Amino acid sequence: MNEHRSIRKYQDRPVEEEKLQRILQSASRASSSGNMQAYSIIVTSDPEIKKSLYKPHFEQSMVLEAPLLLTFCADFHRMREWLKVSKAAMNFDNYMSFMIASIDAILASQNAALAAEAEGLGICYMGTTLASCAQIGEILTCPRHVVPVVGFSLGYPDESPALRDRLPLQSLVHREKYNPYSLQDIQACYEDRETAGMKRYMNDPELRKMVEESGVENLAQVYTQIKYTRKSHLQYSQDVLAYLKMQGFMENE
Description:
Layout: H1 17-28, E1 39-44, H2 47-54, H3 62-65, E2 68-75, H4 77-85, H5 95-118, E3 122-125, H6 128-131, H7 133-139, E4 146-155, H8 169-172, H9 183-203, H10 205-214, H11 219-227, H12 230-246
Antiparallel strand pairs: 1-2, 2-4, 3-4
Helix pairs in contact: 1-5, 9-10
């Protein structure tokens, strides 16, 4: 767990089926709300389907190069089908249900990620799964009450990147109750990140060019003016909410 790295370059080598099965079995043992396991895992290896996923995953090369893509979906379709044949109340069609299923899916995904790395494989989570959930859901033929929420590429690493910095533990952990941060606390939290993060951007020619052309002066500005702009997040929010409504997770009565 302390050696995790995001792997974006993969060997041209398939993942053995027995390893994949152990990873998926580990995923299924994750904690789950009410033991409902309100998620599904879509394993994609077909090159043509991966090509279709390339654009909604923001044209990340690992989508095409990794032997497998795992997409974890919030899924109350299966549960609702069981409710129907059992003549039970047709619940789980609201936003809270989506959140429960999303948490189930995310917990399962982290179990799978840890199992994969224990097997000598590499993974890279893709935030584009949620940002493009409508397009990805259509490509993966997700029925109503199923929404892709998180996913990662999977395969044998063809790189060994350095460990990325993390915030100091004292910046993340609160005792007994949430403790307000002073200005000095905030500066201490992000002091190392500011240095290491900007160094990473400036050491990469492509990222350096992006930073210099944008005129940003620090890492906080990189996050808010280049990577995660207000405009983009508002658009993603609208897209996700529209898809949740289409998939039946926004009933109000």
